[in-house]
What does this fold into?
Amino acid sequence: MQDQGVVDYFTDNGLSNTVKTMQHPAGEYYKGVTYVSYQGPLEDPYVAAYRHVTGEWLGPFKAGISTLGKTPGKKIDNHGKPAMMIDDLGYIHLIFGGHGGLPEHGVNTLGNTHGGRQIHVVTKNPQDISSWEVLDNISPFGTYSQFVKMDNGDIYYFYRHGAHRSNWVYQKSTDNGRTFAPPVSVLKTKPTTGTKEQPDIHDAWYAWFTKGQGNDIIVTYNYHVCKEPIHDGERHNSYYMEMDTDNKEWSNVKGEKLTTPVTKELADKKTLVANTKDLWTVRGTVRADDEGNPHIIFYMGEHLGLRHGGPKQVNYYRWTGEKWFTAESTDLPVATGDILVSSPDEARLLLAGKKDGNSELTWWNTIDGGKNFKKGEVLYNGEKNGMTTSAILRNAHPNARVIVSEKHKGDFKKMYLIGDNGPIKRLKVEADQLEEY
Ligand code: ZN
It folds into this structure.
């Protein structure tokens, strides 16, 4: 596909773990243009834009400067990748660069610290990604930025307020991101019973928020057993709850009110989707169908199985109105991705992962409420190269649903914008043509 300098990717300067479902949306379709963001050289945030009518690409432009990624020889942190929000006036915002902040940023009253500094930037002009400025209006301690924008323009900025042992919080803006109300805690970190070998254990969380039906915000999360002195990635279970933004009340899937911040005890009692017992889980994504009921995907495996080749499986759950339904056996590949749902019976999973030794971005569809999944269109085949995907972009155009990264040279990745016609091509851009490369 390299005819006359036309390539499938829009840039090859994605760095390391450059997009993920966690930090989201990573891009948005807005007034005929798809805007995309990712982690580029030196862990700085980059933005490119694709004008659908003319087929023209703009950028990538460097949108800000992260404090991560500036120490030569230091391991790439990868936690500061950007999330994007376009406000009602057309200004494009990114929040990036944080991995819990540092003691030099002050006292973190809602958790601990680790590194980086969370930074908010906005374009100087509407719909113009060529120039950016910093807005000093958010906590430096954030990481895992997520934006939920409501139909009335209210912006909810969700994040973990520090390193592992920190509450998950949101800050609300009603003025297009120019100011934010103070953080409100949603999920609580706290010490729990330790053992002789691991005397210091805290409840901790990984969460993924998005807009539900109407004025609701929905979230899926899993539980991290944060142990010291021997720390590992142990995470279990899947949980779900929702917030009615009209009255700021949280409730479980049955509509029972919850006191926030939600503790481990309350989560187990009221919000559990799946108890995975000894099996570990990797947080997934959630979307609401047209009846407002959630559909959730995540994957699970044996202890240390997640990155070490043990057996794993992808789980799909949906709330029927009465109970959580899950397919007993599923043909789904072990992969990460996102969900599009319409009716309760019809869900489409867009998953990036390996199947039969090939990396694919593929639709997996059910029309019987998850009893069976059939492989649909392969949108991109990366052959032997590993790939990662963003969550589905906000207001995504069918031709530009997700951002995908694929191994290139060393730590660098080729970056693709992919939709129902496959990757959106562009004329190859030489590095010296990009001012901000
Ligand atoms: Zn931990």
